[in-house]
Amino acid sequence: MHIMLYDAHTHLHEFLDSRIAEFVREIMIAAVSDDYPSSRRTIDLSNNYENIVPCVGIHPWNVDKVGLDELRQVEKLLSEAKCIGEVGLDRRFVPQTFNRQVEFFQTFVSWARDYDLPLNIHAPDAWRDVLEMVRRADVDRVLFHWYTGPLNLIQELRDYGYYISINAAIKIQEKSKAVAKEAPLDMILLESDGPYEYRGITLEPPMVKDAARIIAEIKGISVEDLWDVVSSNFSRLFNL
Is residue 9 marked as binding? Predict the structure, then answer.
C-alpha cells in the first residue's frame, strides 16, 4: 500500500528542480519562503508541481535586510498562496532585531486573519510572545515549526487548536523526543526544514519517514496510523 507522506515545513526554493520533482512524487510539502524572491519562486513551483502547499513570507532573520516595500510585494502574492511563512519571532539567534521582527510579524498576523490563511511560524525562545500575538489577533490556524519550546506550553497550544511540527532531527535531538512524547497526536505534524544543516546532517523531505518511525514507536502506534493522523492534521491546518 502506498502511503502519502507529509512535510509541513521545507525551503523547497533552495533545492534543484530535479530534486523537487523527486520529493513531490511521494511527499506533500508545505514550502516556506524567506523573502520576496523566494516567495515568488515558491508560488511558481506550486504552479509547476502538484503536492506543494505554497507559503510566502519574510523570515525573521531577514527583517533587517529588507524594506517595508518588500512586505507590499509579498502581500500581492497572497491570492496565490495557501499559507504565510516562514514568519515569526526569534530571541535566540537574532535578538538584536527583535523590535523590527515584531513590526513585521504584526503585519503577517493581520494578513493571516484578513486573508484567512494559516501561519507557518519560527519562534526560538519566543514561543509565548508568538502565542500571545496570534491569540490577540484571533488567528485560527497556526503551526509552530520545529517545536522545541517549553513542554508545559504544549497543552495550551493544543487548547487553541494550534499545531506543532517535529523535525526529522528527532533521531539525534533529545528535546524533540520529549516533545513527541508530550504532544497529543491530534496536533502533531512532521517536517524536515530542508536543506537546513543540523549537527552535520543536511535535512531533506524524505527524512520525515525516519521521524515517523521514531514518533510512532514513542506513541506506541503503527507508522501507518501515525501517517493517517498526520494527514488529517495537515489537511485541517492548510484547508486542503
Answer: yes
Residue recorded with cell 502574492: 77
What the block records as the C-alpha cell of 169 is 532531527
- Please tell me the least confidently modeled range out of 45-49, 68-72, 153-157: 68-72
pTM of the model: 0.97
**Selection from 4, 27, 43, 3 nearest residue 204 by Cα:** 27
What single string gives the DSSP state of each residue in 168-214?
A: GGGGT-HHHHHHHHHS-GGGEEEE--TT-EETTEE--GGGHHHHHHH
- Per-residue pLDDT of 184-210, as tens digits, reads 999 999 999 999 999 999 999 999 999
Confirm whether residue 13 is marked as ligand binding: no
Q: Which of 156, 165, 116 is CA-nearest to residue 140?
A: 116
* Fold (CATH) for 5-238: TIM Barrel (3.20.20)
Mean pLDDT of 33-41: 98
**H or E element, residue 120:** strand 119-122
The response to whether 125 counts as a known ligand-binding position is: no
The verdict on whether residue 69 carries a ligand-binding annotation is no
- Where do the structural domains in the chain lie, given as residue ranges? 5-238
pLDDT tens digits, residue range 223-235? Answer: 999 999 999 999 9
